[in-house]
Design brief:
about 325 residues; alpha/beta; Rossmann fold; 2 domains; seven-stranded parallel beta sheet; five-stranded parallel beta sheet; about 40% helix; globular; binds NADP nicotinamide-adenine-dinucleotide phosphate
Length: about 325
């Protein structure tokens, strides 16, 4: 059974241990994202691939890997970098790592929400530059978070973890999904709204949908225009769910108060107008990046590969 498993990036040792103990011939590619040529070359003959969000795993990749390829385990809950349709056509199982990163990613969403509202980035830059001269009654004022209204776009696993945090801050919770989540409504006191109405109603918007054709630029100029002038937008989902150019314009015009972002349309590039602005907090895609959670993600991805290559059902298969 054992054969070649390609791990496209350096991952926590706990994940590699699962693969090595199962007897696979493990190739670990690089710390930085591999160049396409090197990635394809390394894929030749692999039975299993452990990929991350920085690799495009498409039909070409699978064809180069060859007919022995049985499983692509993406070390992420999002799998917009994998062509699941192409995998299904070739009989390749695709898996992801849902559930183990919800609380950790929700922590980052809430961290960005607080930092954007209370102007932490701007205030810290001022202090570090030696420009903080005195305590001031009007210095770095921002809107309160506690007791306000939050709107969660995509009340799934991570969205619900954000809602639990919001409850601790005494916030009213509104959400928009394609379908109602009645259990979450009962547990969290969350109220469903159409997207337009939600944007007009809430003080904070946190986006948690997957990236699909339907959610690309779900938050664009029109949607930003519906938000309150003191509203704060947080995006920890995937960059293209928010129209970055439109967001930069809204922040410049002051039509919303601030934003907190962990993800970007063309990572690692960030829209130059966002880089110039004080009223946006920018994190480099660190949502799931706690020590414990990255271990759990690596182990889960490795276990999914081991299961498929042993002929067992994997824990986290994804379908188109
Ligand atoms: P999930 O449990 O599947 O939740 C996603 C939610 O989005 C679902 O409740 C779904 O509900 C809703 N949704 C889907 N399409 C929608 C649409 N067109 N309009 C409105 N709502 C829609 O996923 P999750 O585990 O919470 O993860 C969410 C995303 O977060 C992932 O896909 C990933 O891209 C991102 N993520 C980012 C990081 C990071 O490091 N920043 C870390 C982890 C995850 P309906 O089906 O009812 O619409």
């Amino acid at each position: 059974m054992p054969g070649k498993v390609l791990v496209t990036r350096e991952i926590p040792e706990a994940g590699l241990r699962v693969l090595k103990e199962a007897g696979f011939d493990v190739t670990v590619l690089s710390e930085a994202p591999p160049a396409r040529d090197g990635l394809l070359e390394a894929a030749r003959g692999a039975k299993g691939v452990l990929s991350t969000v920085t690799e495009t795993v498409d039909g070409e990749f699978m064809d180069v890997a060859g007919g022995g390829l049985k499983v692509v385990a993406n070390m992420a809950v999002g799998y917009d970098n994998v062509d699941v349709g192409a995998a299904q056509e070739r009989g390749v199982v695709v898996t992801n790592t849902p559930g183990v990163l919800d609380e950790t990613t929700a922590d980052v969403a809430f961290m960005l929400l607080l930092a954007a509202a209370r102007r932490l980035g701007e205030a810290e830059r001022t202090l570090r530059a030696g420009r903080w001269e005195w305590w001031g009654p009007k210095l770095f004022m921002g809107p309160d978070v506690w007791g306000k209204r939050i709107g969660i776009v995509g009340l799934g696993r991570i969205g619900q973890a954000v809602a639990r945090r919001a409850r601790g801050f005494g916030m009213e919770i509104y959400y928009h999904n394609r379908s109602r989540k009645e259990e979450a409504e009962r547990e969290l006191g969350a109220r469903w709204m159409e997207l337009d109405e939600l944007l007009e109603t809430v003080d904070f918007v946190s986006v948690h949908t997957p990236l699909t054709e339907e959610t690309r630029h779900l938050i664009g100029a029109e949607e930003l225009g519906k938000m309150k002038p003191r509203a704060v937008l947080v995006n920890t989902s995937r960059g293209p769910v928010v129209d970055e150019a439109a967001l930069a314009e809204a922040l410049e015009a002051g039509s919303i108060f601030a934003a907190g972002l962990d993800v970007y349309e063309e990572e690692p590039k960030v829209h130059p107008k966002l880089l110039e602005r004080e009223n946006v907090v920018l994190a480099p895609h660190i949502g799931s990046g706690s020590i414990e959670t990255r271990d759990r993600m690596a182990v889960l991805a490795a276990e999914n590969i081991r299961a498929v290559l042993r002929g067992e059902p994997p824990k986290n298969p994804v379908e188109q």
